[in-house]
Every structure is written in C-alpha cells, then in structure tokens.
Design goal:
75 residues; mainly alpha
Length: 75
C-alpha cells in the first residue's frame, strides 16, 4: 500500500508538464512521467530500464558527470 508521500509524488509526477524521473545510483531509469511523450516524443515505457546517459547529448555528458561527482560523498 502506498503511503501519503508516494500518493502525492505519483499525483505530482503524472500531472506535471515537466518530465519527472526516478533513477537508481546506477543511473537506470525506474520511473518516467507521462509528459515524456509530449516533451521528448518518447513513451515512458521506452525510457524505463535505460541509463539516463542514453538521453543526454554527448556534449552535455561532462556536465552530468560533474554534477554526479559533486553530489557523491567523495565529491
């Protein structure tokens, strides 16, 4: 059974015009909001199970790497 926080998150994610994703430490997408179809042209089901990196432009990958490094305990 969902707790209130999960219910609130689900409502927010499914009704937002922004793409909301949930990924693990391995950067694999576990949840992608329905707005991904309108914004990116990808169904959530096409994105789930893939690494976040798959959807980042190659020239932006260093920015992603720096953000991950600065958020890590060793960073």
């Amino acid at each position: 059974m969902f707790g209130q926080n999960e219910i609130d998150f689900q409502f927010l994610a499914e009704n937002s015009v922004d793409i909301i994703c949930r990924a693990g430490i391995d950067r694999i997408l576990h949840y992608v909001s329905p707005s991904s179809l309108h914004v990116l042209g990808w169904n959530p089901e096409e994105m789930i199970g893939k690494r976040v990196d798959h959807f980042i432009l190659p020239e932006d990958l260093p920015i992603l790497a720096a953000a991950i490094a600065s958020d890590s305990p060793a960073g």
